[in-house]
């Protein structure tokens, strides 16, 4: 029972860490997409975005991949391992504890 509670806590922690990184990525990409737009943000309806807006958004995502991508991929792998018990290749825990 205690082992299950520990696994659930570790899973919740990693999901929260991943959500923070995803929010950081989206915020930065939307800020880049909104460059030159009124209020500094692109239209809320992404269907209304033009090619230049999408280009700025995707360029920011590409640029942030070097910083955020490895941590996000590692967290996804750790969540998979905790959930299904199958480690992904090259997975190393962020907290120094085997997932």
How confident is the prediction overall: mean pLDDT? Answer: 86
How many individual helices?
2
Oligomeric status of the shown chains? single chain
What is the C-alpha radius of gyration, as a whole number of Å? 17 Å
Major beta-sheet overview = none
* String of helices and strands: HH
Shape: elongated
Helical proportion? 55-70%
Ranges where pLDDT stays below 50 over 5 or more residues in a row are none
Question: Which class of secondary structure composition applies to the elements?
Answer: mainly alpha
- Approximately how much beta-strand content do the residues carry? under 5%
How many discrete structural domains? 1
Number of strands: 0
- Distance from first to last alpha carbon: 17 Å
Summarize the helices and strands and which ones pair or pack.
Elements: H1 2-33, H2 51-84
Mind explaining what this structure looks like?
- It is a single chain.
- The chain is an all-alpha fold.
- It has one domain.
- The chain has helices at 2-33, 51-84.
What key phrases describe this protein's structure?
99 residues, mainly alpha, 0% strand
